[in-house]
Amino acid sequence: MAREIERKFLLKNQEWKALAHQKTHFAQGYLNDISDKNAKSSVRVRIEGDKANMNIKSLEIGLSRDEYEYEIPLEEGRKILATLATGPVIEKDRYLVKVDTHIWEIDEFFGDNQGLVIAEVEMQSEDEEFEIPSWAGREVTEEVRFYNISLSKHPFNSWTENEKQ
């Protein structure tokens, strides 16, 4: 079993963009309805550049969650997104930025989530120390509305000004 441990941050500015060493386009959609009170996981298909994968994550909110990921044929991934996604497909560009010994993943969203930019840093343990760069703003790890599965049900462009703070 894999365990994903990450922290999420909003960004203060665009300074990170000049530091990015890689950019990949993502399209992802969810195959189950998490509003079902019995749901214990999210199931998604993601197209990442020229690869596709199926991903299952436990529905825990916070620093760590169970995560399983399996590569699938690209054409099957495209077909699943087009026909089986339960809500809008999330589109974003992911940039990679190295800060000290960690690689930060910065997602710049499009479509219904245009204007939202979130930085994530993965860790080996929940108490691991890491450098928080000057361009990282408020931490949103514990705020469910900033998770991709929530963005597929309640996109950023439909948020109130208060929700965007």
UniProtKB/TrEMBL annotation:
Q: Tell me, what's a Pfam family for it?
A: CYTH
InterPro entries noted in UniProt: CYTH-like_dom_sf, CYTH_domain, NeuTTM/CthTTM-like
Q: Where is the CYTH domain?
A: 2-153
Q: What Gene3D superfamilies does the record point to?
A: Hypothetical Protein Pfu-838710-001
Q: What is this protein called?
A: CYTH domain-containing protein
Q: Which organism is it from?
A: Thiomicrorhabdus immobilis
The root-end lineage is: Bacteria, Pseudomonadati, Pseudomonadota, Gammaproteobacteria, Thiotrichales
